[in-house]
Design a protein that fits this description.
Chain C: It is found in: Nucleus. The complex is a heterotrimer of chains A (about 230), B (about 200) and C (about 180). Chain B is an alpha+beta fold. Chain B has helices at about 5-15, 25-50, 65-100, 105-110, 115-135, 185-190; strands at about 150-155, 160-165, 170-175, 180, 195-200. Chain C has two domains: about 5-65, Ribosomal Protein L9, domain 1 (3-Layer(aba) Sandwich), CATH 3.40.5; about 70-155, no CATH class. The radius of gyration of chain C is 22 Å and the shape is elongated. The longest helix of chain C is centred in the C-terminal third of the chain and has 22 residues, at about 145-165. Classes of the chains: A alpha+beta (about 230), B alpha+beta (about 200), C mainly alpha (about 180). Chains B and C meet through helix 1, helix 2, helix 3, helix 6 and strand 5 of B and helix 1, strand 2 and helix 2 of C.
Chain lengths: ~230, ~200, ~180
């Protein structure tokens, strides 16, 4: 269906398809939901973010062009809403990650596994935040305490390990579902298995919601086989 | 009893309203710091007693040793409370930075912060801005999922005239005036209490 | 320590416990009944948990089971769990119980805490979801800190749900700003 507006003739259905590429919105939604629900930071979706940013730019350019060329403002605002939603998802995804970094920066810097999940810019951010926080702690508290008690990671020099570092709560319960049938999920670790009555490993039917602790399904979430809600 | 004052600091944190900061209690804070110094002096003098009696520090477990232990434990407890006081306030400060959407510290917040906290507020805001400009992404808008791109607002405080909006138009935000704005433009004013959203 | 900065954990460890000293201690002013700055072996003193725990683990003192977990409390809870006043016995009833359990050699505490919680939580959630405010303040005074948090979480999600259903402004003035803006003169 073509429309004639002020001389310009644009086929709306064609443009709508090129305008809202749905291929990346779903992966973005998924990445956003997982990141929001997971207690620890997940691997950074660098290529997804890159593509989304390009698509956002393209959509912004198109909207500008359409509003200048006099297309019905109602239609333009529909495109705008779509753009808004994608921007919201992207911003919320990045924000979620930054807030986890702010909360657990010391732990992330100590854990190879988590450190590898940061983007280049996030690494710089984490490093600088840690520097700021350490300075703040030093000035407010640590420099005023007796020697041997001035460390930000150890309570005193007699501590055998870094006993002041908060960790992400991996035993939080999360709502999740699997895309396919999964079996042999171990819900408890060695210690717990020894003292509990549950003998068989857990199984998950596809698309059925479950509420489980995050820790046992950690690797399944990372590999994309389980989604969090 | 040891650790009482330190615990009072933490109680102050717990009894405050969620997400709100109380005035930095420098009096109580300094009192706990000097208790730490006191514990350390006593600890050291007890250890010296053991040494002066010619006993082996590593293996002697006499009354003086246990006394030193208790002072050490009290020191560690005080440190934990002091650190928790600063740490939890810093968390609240960070959440304020996100809510204030990149603008300056309001005076009513500033007066509650210690000097170091004020520094930290400024530094951390700068870090976020740095990160956002690297990504070319403004993270301080879109705090709530978008329903409509435009919302109706009433101005609660005289914001001024000639304010430039994101689409390069200008607006006069006079007291009580009503406008139809882009959601992302209005967010920062609403958050600071300068406008309210109207839902007809 | 993952809960190093956790406020509730810190406060729970301030709860008082009765200990009996097994060794003498010099140079500390923690025994109010002693005239000197020392504690004699055999003295019974009330200490905060953070200190009692360390002394117990190093066998300098022995911890007794706090009264909030004694037989009398258990009988009361058995009778009518949902309305026992836990808060006046111990603010951090469950957290403190979990910390004490491995130390006092009573293996029944763990399962007893769990069954107490089970009997009470249904009542907490029911009250949180109903809109009867008059009843709630008296009832709230009976809850431990952990239960109060659960109540508040349930209430706030109920409120958010109702608000979502009814519509209404979605953007709000940031709560940390004071209600009345004072005019500067």
């Amino acid at each position: 269906m073509a429309s004639n507006l002020g001389g310009a003739s644009i086929s709306q259905t064609d443009d709508f398809e090129t305008f809202t590429p749905t291929t990346d919105v779903e992966p973005l939604k998924r990445a956003w939901r997982n990141e929001k629900a997971a207690p620890e930071i997940l691997p950074y979706e660098a290529s997804l973010v890159g593509r989304i940013k390009e698509q956002i730019q393209a959509m912004e350019d198109s909207i500008e062009e359409y509003s200048r060329s006099g297309i019905d403002p109602l239609i333009v605002s529909l495109y705008q809403m779509d753009l808004d939603r994608i921007q919201f998802l992207l911003r919320s995804y990045i924000r979620s990650r930054l807030q986890k970094i702010e909360k657990y920066m010391l732990y992330i810097l100590k854990s190879d596994e988590l450190f590898r999940r940061l983007s280049k810019e996030e690494i710089t951010f984490t490093d600088r935040c840690r520097h700021d926080m350490k300075k703040h702690f030093d000035e407010s508290v640590l420099s005023k305490l007796p020697n041997n008690y001035q460390d930000v990671l150890k309570q005193s020099i007699t501590s055998e390990e870094d006993d002041m570092v908060p960790e992400p709560p991996l035993d939080t319960f999360v709502v999740c579902k699997s895309k396919e049938y999964l079996e042999h999920i171990q819900l408890e670790d060695e210690e717990e298995r020894a003292s509990s009555r549950i003998e068989e490993p857990f199984e998950m039917e596809a698309n059925v919601l479950h509420i489980i602790r995050y820790r046992p399904i950690k690797s399944l979430v990372e590999s994309g086989r389980i989604d969090l809600l | 009893m040891y650790g009482r004052k330190a615990c009072q600091l933490v109680t102050e944190l717990a009894s405050g309203e969620k997400g709100q900061l109380t005035h930095f209690n420098s009096d109580l804070f300094e009192q706990v710091i000097s208790e730490c110094q006191q514990h350390h002096l006593e600890l050291q003098s007890l250890i010296r007693k053991v040494q002066e009696e010619g006993l082996d520090l590593q293996t002697t477990k006499n009354e003086d040793h246990f006394g030193a232990l208790i002072h050490h434990l009290a020191l560690v407890r005080n440190k934990r409370c002091l650190m928790a006081y600063v740490h939890n306030r810093a968390e609240t400060i960070r959440s304020l930075i996100w809510k204030l959407l990149g603008s300056m510290i309001p005076p009513e917040i500033q007066e509650k912060l210690s000097n170091s906290e004020e520094e930290y507020f400024k530094k951390h805001s700068a870090r976020l801005k740095e990160y956002m400009s690297k990504l070319e992404l403004d993270l301080t808008v879109d705090m709530v999922p978008p329903k409509d791109p435009y919302i109706q607002v009433r101005v609660l405080d005289d914001i001024g005239e000639g304010i430039v909006l994101s689409d390069d138009k200008t607006a006069n935000f006079a007291l009580h005036s009503i406008h139809f704005l882009k959601r992302t433009d209005a967010e920062q004013y609403i958050s600071r209490g300068l406008m309210e959203e109207l839902r007809g | 320590m993952t809960s190093y900065y956790d406020i509730d954990d810190i406060l729970a460890e301030e709860e008082l416990v009765s200990v009996v000293f097994q060794k003498a201690v010099n140079g500390v002013g923690i025994d109010p009944s002693s005239e000197t700055d020392s504690v004699e072996s055999g003295s019974k003193v009330e200490l905060p948990f953070w200190l009692a725990q360390e002394l117990h683990l190093r066998q300098v003192a022995v911890m007794a089971l706090p009264s909030c977990f004694n037989q009398r409390t258990r009988l009361e809870i058995q009778a009518d769990a949902a309305f026992v006043d836990l808060r006046s016995r111990c603010q951090f009833f469950y957290e403190f119980g979990c910390k004490i359990a491995p130390l006092v050699g009573d293996r029944t505490i763990g399962s007893w805490l769990l069954s107490t919680f089970k009997s009470r939580y249904k009542e907490v959630l029911t009250k949180a979801h109903s809109a009867v405010f008059a009843a709630s303040s008296k009832y709230l005074a009976l809850l431990s800190k952990e239960e109060t948090k659960m109540y508040e979480a349930a209430q706030s999600s109920m409120t958010a749900f109702k608000k979502w259903r009814m519509g209404g402004p979605r953007f709000q003035r940031a709560s940390f700003l004071s209600r009345k803006r004072k005019s500067t003169e």
